[in-house]
């Protein structure tokens, strides 16, 4: 067929097509069906050997993984691979466990006939602080036990029932004493640990925070000794048997003496922890303990006035501590206070009634100077009062 588009004057040429060059996958030639077939035996043997090797390797790996994850043997372990627990020696000193390890050797369980309490060593030669109500029924001797299980006899050095503090002397040398802190430097919210033997469970440690400061408490059995506290309030779990044990800050320093709990129980046998526990500030306890050791008795701090307790100070329901009488030449009189004045604040702490004034005054050492705000009639006045020691 003639090409209508060909140049009629162009020479003719025969074009032979070349074999196409493939860039894609190559196809295998089709096998000749009449060609002799190869034997399948070697191929089957290779597959069998490969399967056996794969099975052995899989079993080995499965055993290794099962052993590492704790599966098999003693039963299935849930969860991931457990991490190695650090030993007690690896606890950081500033951790709660580190603080507990530091303090526990200095905490003792005080055993009196029919009762049990706690205490803590304040000197290497064997002086121990506890509560007065722990040893009030003791005779001259009693026993204490330590966190390592050892025991020793002890004698009562002296007691101060009004502050609910006592000192005993343990017949043991080279004792580990606690570090004493500064109860005036703690703040609400600071973490604390309580040590002791609640419900006879020795070597118990509980944790909490400082819930309040200068919480005034009036305690004591009806007809018995009335005790007043300007206490450290904490929510650390404290129960019967914790009395006399230390309240410790996060650095392992004693900041209080566990003494009182508030409970919804109707009797002592029903009393238990509800997150309201109170400790005597260590600054007060340290001063009283030193008085007992040095002089055989403690000096009681007074303001030189008798106050009304148990309610508001007038028909209007106003708060404060009304002075019933003022001792001539006493601290209050020297500062210019008179009978009938109503003290509303001491060192900035608001007073609800006379109980607050008694508790807060006893917190301070004799010769301390405190700022007092008082009401005389309708006029508010202020004064500086130098507290004194009771003449008793």
Automatic annotation (TrEMBL):
<keyword id="KW-0645">Protease</keyword>
<keyword id="KW-0812">Transmembrane</keyword>
<dbReference type="InterPro" id="IPR009003">
    <property type="entry name" value="Peptidase_S1_PA"/>
</dbReference>
<feature type="domain" description="PDZ">
    <location>
        <begin position="292"/>
        <end position="353"/>
    </location>
</feature>
<keyword id="KW-1133">Transmembrane helix</keyword>
<keyword id="KW-0378">Hydrolase</keyword>
<dbReference type="Pfam" id="PF13365">
    <property type="entry name" value="Trypsin_2"/>
</dbReference>
<keyword id="KW-0472">Membrane</keyword>
<dbReference type="GO" id="GO:0004252">
    <property type="term" value="F:serine-type endopeptidase activity"/>
</dbReference>
<dbReference type="InterPro" id="IPR051201">
    <property type="entry name" value="Chloro_Bact_Ser_Proteases"/>
</dbReference>
<dbReference type="InterPro" id="IPR036034">
    <property type="entry name" value="PDZ_sf"/>
</dbReference>
<dbReference type="InterPro" id="IPR001478">
    <property type="entry name" value="PDZ"/>
</dbReference>
<dbReference type="InterPro" id="IPR001940">
    <property type="entry name" value="Peptidase_S1C"/>
</dbReference>
<protein>
    <submittedName>
        <fullName>Putative trypsin-like serine protease</fullName>
    </submittedName>
</protein>
<feature type="transmembrane region" description="Helical">
    <location>
        <begin position="43"/>
        <end position="66"/>
    </location>
</feature>
<dbReference type="Pfam" id="PF13180">
    <property type="entry name" value="PDZ_2"/>
</dbReference>
<dbReference type="GO" id="GO:0006508">
    <property type="term" value="P:proteolysis"/>
</dbReference>
